[in-house]
Write a structure and sequence with these properties.
Helix content is 70%, strand content 0%. α7 crosses α8. It has 412 residues and is an all-alpha fold.
Length: 412
């Protein structure tokens, strides 16, 4: 039944693909700001990467939308990622968009295969259902439509998770360094590792992040790096104009600030968001039993860390939930197959995963005008995994209950 649902979702996406392409050619997707950033770097204008007027000028060269609105879709990513986009800026915009989406499709499939081979819980799902789930998952489809770097982000976080599960901590840290393309998700995860004193992982992260900072400085200059936080703060003040309204964020910030009539309370709500986010990170760090590597409880703690990173990220968008697709599939597998869990926990995991796979995103967006409500299901998933960890820690682990993730990875 689940497989048929996934295939139907894929079919519907393919049905609207021609319309999506026409929409993309006009410059609507987020890819237009990536392409413009790459073009600026390619042409030697990296120092103007965060100049709004310069961005608008470049986007008007290929984007009908930028010409009509007389403003750009603003580039908010770190400077170093623009180097990647400069490779695609050598093509015309339409070809670059199709090539970029094609690359991300390949990376999504690669991430799915990599995770499936590493975690035995996923092997219980039939292969065609498993892979179909990724390309039916609304955040992934949405990210691909927008021309986001969905495949790259999913693959990088998959590398982090598998390396941590197999005790390759330095490698996990190196992969985590590259997730700074989504620093609002990477830094909460780094905070948890810091609280757990995973210094080998943090060493790998520090090495890669130092290199990326140096690359960024070579593009925008030291002054550009120093002014980058102020640039992001200015865009955050614009909110709707910059397409970063909390109403569209399925995280703690969205659940607190994403409602009408709260503009005057923003400073207070920002402070409350920071406090609650930090509390969540500290709680997850305490729940994650690092010493139980290879056990279900360890996997549960790793899963909670990924969920906490998404929930506590200051700017989490729906397409950012793409990195949770393996988490949802593992949740469903555990709910169906792990007899050690009580019925309430299994139902909670299955319901939360099912609701996040359901096409409720479209209902929330088109009929409610907000996507922050999806954060409620993430909180339900956190509650389910916390209950599962408690159950696993209280129940002696039999060797037949779990094939170690490490052993699964080594067999590859």
């Amino acid at each position: 039944m689940a497989g048929s649902f996934f295939l139907a979702m894929i079919a519907s996406s393919l049905w609207v693909a021609p319309a999506t392409y026409r929409y993309a050619r006009q410059g609507y997707p987020d890819f237009s700001c990536f392409y413009a950033a790459g073009k600026m770097v390619l042409e030697g204008h990296g120092r103007s990467l965060y100049d709004l007027a310069a961005q608008s000028e470049v986007q008007r060269q290929f984007s009908q939308v930028a010409m009509e609105r007389n403003r750009a879709l603003y580039y908010m990513r770190p400077p170093f990622e623009a180097v990647l986009f400069s490779l695609f800026a050598r093509l015309d915009y339409a070809k670059a968009y199709v090539t970029w989406v094609g690359l991300n499709l390949i990376l999504i499939a690669a991430a799915a295969a990599f995770v499936r081979r590493a975690f035995s819980q996923l092997m219980s799902i039939p292969g065609w259902v498993y892979y179909a789930a990724y390309f039916a998952f609304a955040p992934i489809v949405y990210g691909l439509t927008l021309g986001q770097d969905t495949g790259i982000v999913l693959l990088l976080f998959a590398l982090v998770a598998v390396c941590l599960a197999t005790q390759r901590e330095f490698g996990a840290g190196c992969a985590l360094g590259f997730t700074l393309i989504k620093f609002q998700l990477a830094l909460p995860f780094v905070t948890i590792l810091l609280l757990k004193r995973r210094f080998r992982t943090l060493a790998g992260f520090s090495l890669v992040s130092t290199i990326l900072v140096a690359v960024s400085a070579s593009i925008v200059g030291i002054r550009g790096l120093i002014e980058y936080p102020a640039y992001l703060f200015r865009l955050n003040q614009l909110q709707t104009t910059a397409a970063i309204s909390p109403a569209y964020m399925p995280n703690i910030r969205g659940l607190l600030e994403g409602w009408a009539g709260l503009a005057r309370l923003r400073p207070t709500l920002d402070l409350l968001t920071a406090v609650l986010s930090l509390m969540l990170l500290v709680w997850v760090a305490r729940r994650w039993n690092i010493s139980a590597a290879g056990s279900q409880a360890y996997l549960g703690g790793l899963t909670l860390a990924l969920l906490a990173a998404v929930l506590s990220g200051y700017q989490t968008f729906v397409h950012d939930l793409s990195l949770l697709c393996p988490v949802l599939l593992i949740s469903a597998s555990v709910a169906l197959d792990d007899s050690r869990l009580d019925l309430c926990t299994r139902r909670l995991l299955a319901a939360a995963a099912g609701l996040l796979f359901a096409p409720l995103y479209f209902v929330a967006m088109h009929f409610m005008g907000r996507l922050n409500v999806m954060g409620i299901f993430l909180l339900l998933l956190v509650a389910g995994w916390s209950r599962a960890i408690s159950r696993w820690e209280a129940t002696p682990l039999r060797e037949s209950d779990l094939k170690s993730a490490g052993c699964a990875a080594e067999s590859t």
